[in-house]
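Researcher: Re-running this chain for the archive, since the previous output was lost when a drive failed. Same request as before.
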Amino acid sequence: MIDQVSLRAKASRVLLGNWRGQSTVPAGGLYPHQWSWDSAFIAVGLRHLSALRAQRELESLFGAQWPDGRVPHIVFDPVTPPEAYFPGADFWRSAEVLGAGRPATSGLIQPPVHALAAWQTFRADPDLARRRGFLPRLYPRLVAWHRYLIERRCFGGHGLVSIVHPWESGMDNSPAWDAPLSRINPVPAGEFQRRDLDHAAAAERPTAADYGRYVRLAATYRDHGYADSLAVHAFAVEDPLTNALLAASESALADIAAEIGADPAAHRAAVAELSAAMVDVLFDEGEGTFRSFDVHSGQSLGGGSVAGIVPLVVPGLSVADALVKTAVGRRFRIGETGLPPSFDLTDELFDANRYWRGPVWFNIGWLIWRGLLLHAAHDIADTVRHALLSAADTAGFREYVNPITGQGLGARDFSWTAAVTVDLLAGATR
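Model: Regenerated structure tokens:
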């Protein structure tokens, strides 16, 4: 039996302990800066503890938004020593593009869950948000963010957004990226100094070769001035998770627009257009899941990633029943365990301990929980909710957990694990 009062208190201590005045770090050792989609999930939990801090979390992130609308995946803390994280601000050289006087950031992005988080944050304390002008100030920034994605990243001609680096998916080391990454010549390991292995076991992290490929892709993008051209990007993939979260956030933007007196029609149309394009291009009817699409090869990538069932978060998704069936089937088994593995349990590439190649991530579990509720699969949603809370209670607020043993892995006192735990304890359904 979970002591919910105790669990909430422990989760609260993690979130408050990782707060740095204007934003929250994912974990003090391994991730000492602000990460984009981390801040969105953190705001979802933080709103139950302090709606003001949750608002400031998102405001801080969007304060580092680029003029072209992109929201960078890392905003660097200027007081953190440069050697604390690689690749750091000196690697990305954002000042060469943005000019002096702006926050140092990376040039990559992460999945666009921010509008959904902003709407949830508003709903926690509407009076405070209205007094502060939270939504009227954030709305145009969110619109610019989505416009960047739709106008600058639609390389495939399908009306879908492409990611140009595995880090942009948020699911960095997924086996889904193995095929397009195999075309990339890695930077030799001796030419850069990883910092992640100072904080986590090598068996739980990407291999040296894969990390070298990540560095190669990032350096090429940087050296081309972060230009969004297919000719620049050797890796260009239409990812179901990124596009599903864009659709879900467009739905949230419709709610935000209505609240502030703007016209929500364009946002509602965008949800329908994205949803239809995803089903048309990415859905595999035989497997009952979504696959990523490699823009360069013109081929669907191998299935198996949990990203293929995350589109449950899209309102009105026409293939939701098929996704639920896949989620409870033998490949993910969430009807039994309640813990969504990050990769197909039956696939030979499944690795229960290695970063995004099998372990359970709490933010993905939270998204699937929301999606199940959205599509009226309430009993399964309850199973997922209880399992996530039990895992957080047993393993502590770890970055991810082994889906078979429940062993905690990766960073300790991980902020989004604590944040979604607080939200799950609150029992929010929207």
